[in-house]
Design goal:
This protein is α/β, with parallel strands linked by helices. The protein is 47% helix and 14% strand. Bound molecules: 5-phosphoarabinonic acid.
């Protein structure tokens, strides 16, 4: 059983041995109800549905302004530091790392820069000390992102970077090297940006952090890394039209994915592993983990979102997935065509006994590893779904981001929780502030 919509194909063939047709029938009604709740702005947290129309709402003018700002930062900088945490960080990193050359940092100076790097997602002293030391010798700019404008981790990193930059370039120049992305009117960051005269972009009030990739939060860093945000928005816009135009289990892959997840959850599968065979998708998986984890994990409910990059993790987690506690299901995220091609050479001695695959591309072997794993895990009692995209480019990544956002909202409504709040995140902050004597 599979559905293809635009460039995304969902195949749930590897789930079917674990669920009966009757069981699939039982989730149809709740899935369509959840879809309708979303479309009719009738579900919990419906004041945060701005992301649903974000692709079609991003105006040409706004894209040009973002692209122009990115161009200026790129010309002025060897390094652009994006300061943010959670939804103000992971989406941009996911797209950039999926698209960029993994070994860019090893290239000659000209091709290596500008680099987009990240800070404020941790309070590691070594991390920030080493970053500041490296920046001593580099020309850099800072994009600081916080919707609330008050999150401690990015606020600390930004304070350090601002002081470092002021020292380096002087107070007069510093404002031309800083861009702030925050709320239109409230929060400490907004106040600071207005006072210091930073260029600012607004995070729409009705768009939550983890659903904000298609706002300036994701688009500016992605453009700074040199990628085409017009193509990204186009891919998303086409996915928006497609998903809004189909509401059933048999024609909307996001609804089918949400339905299958909830069905498996009801049958005791409380952990979902998003597994890719493409190391550049590591941060995409991290973004997905936050999207589903923060949206669904509440009120004692939710599927725990875990991630793996194979083959690496086949040699660490693979044993557990194959034979450990049977509370797992997997979703494979497969990319059909790599950006580049490498063929395995023939070797006269054949000491490594690899000549049987000489002349084959690495992707050919990687695909066999994926198919072999899918079969092994299914036979080992792990239901496996598969999502396939033809290649990693701006358009397909945009489509994939929107697909998962849409599926997440439908899935959370099926589960009976509000996908758009995160009350549990406050607990650690309260204790930390108490311990810090705030
Ligand atoms: O998805 C979310 O809303 C969160 O992950 C936030 O993005 C994260 O906590 C950072 O918040 P802020 O952008 O207000 O600094």
């Amino acid at each position: 059983m599979e559905i293809t919509l635009n460039n995304i194909r969902l195949d749930v063939g590897g789930v079917l041995p674990f669920v009966s047709n009757d069981e699939l029938e039982t989730v149809k009604g709740p899935a369509v109800k959840a879809y309708n709740e979303l479309m009719n702005v009738a579900g919990a947290g419906s004041e945060f549905l701005g992301w649903l129309d974000l692709p079609s709402d991003v105006s040409k003018k706004q894209i040009e302004e973002i692209a122009e700002t990115a161009g200026k930062l790129r010309r002025r900088s060897d390094v652009i530091i994006v300061v943010g945490i959670g939804g103000s960080y992971l989406g941009a990193r996911a797209v950039i790392e999926a698209l960029q050359d993994s070994f860019k940092f090893l290239h000659k100076k000209k091709r290596r820069f500008p680099q987009v790097i990240f800070a404020g997602q941790n309070i590691g002293e070594d991390y920030h000390a080493e970053l500041l030391a490296a920046l001593d010798k580099l020309k850099y700019s800072v994009i600081v992102i916080s919707k609330s404008g008050t999150t401690t981790e990015p606020a600390i990193a930004f304070r350090l970077l601002r002081a470092h930059l002021e020292n380096k370039v002087g107070k007069g120049v510093v404002a031309s090297r800083i861009v702030a992305i925050t709320d239109s009117s409230k929060g400490a960051l907004k106040k600071l940006a207005d006072r210091e005269g930073y260029k600012t972009f607004v995070i729409p009030g009705d768009v939550g952090g983890r659903f904000s990739v298609l706002s300036p939060v994701g688009l500016l860093p992605i453009a700074c890394a040199g990628f085409d945000i017009r193509k990204l928005v186009k891919g998303t816009e086409e996915m928006e039209t497609a998903l809004k135009g189909h509401g059933g289990l048999d024609d909307n892959p996001a609804v089918l994915y949400a339905a299958v997840r909830n069905l498996l959850y009801a049958k005791g599968k409380s952990v979902e592993m998003l597994a890719s065979f493409h190391p550049s998708l590591f941060y995409f998986i991290e973004w997905w983990k936050q999207l589903f984890g923060e949206s669904e994990g509440k009120e004692g409910k939710g599927i725990f979102p875990a991630g793996a990059v194979y083959s690496t993790d086949l040699h660490s987690l693979g044993q557990f997935v194959q034979e450990g506690t049977r509370n797992l299901f997997e979703t494979f995220l497969w990319v059909e065509n790599p950006k580049k091609k490498i063929v395995i050479p023939t070797d006269g001695d054949n000491d490594d006994e690899l000549n049987y695959i000489a002349g084959k591309s690495l992707n050919y072997v990687n695909e066999k590893a994926m198919l072999g794993t899918l079969k092994a895990h299914t036979e080992g009692g792990v239901p496996c779904a598969k999502i396939t995209v033809p290649e990693l480019n701006e358009k397909n990544l945009g489509a994939l981001v929107y697909f998962f956002e849409f599926a997440c909202a439908v899935s959370a409504y099926m589960l009976g929780v509000n996908p758009f709040n995160q009350p549990g995140v406050e607990a650690y902050k309260k204790n930390m502030f108490e311990l810090l004597g705030k």
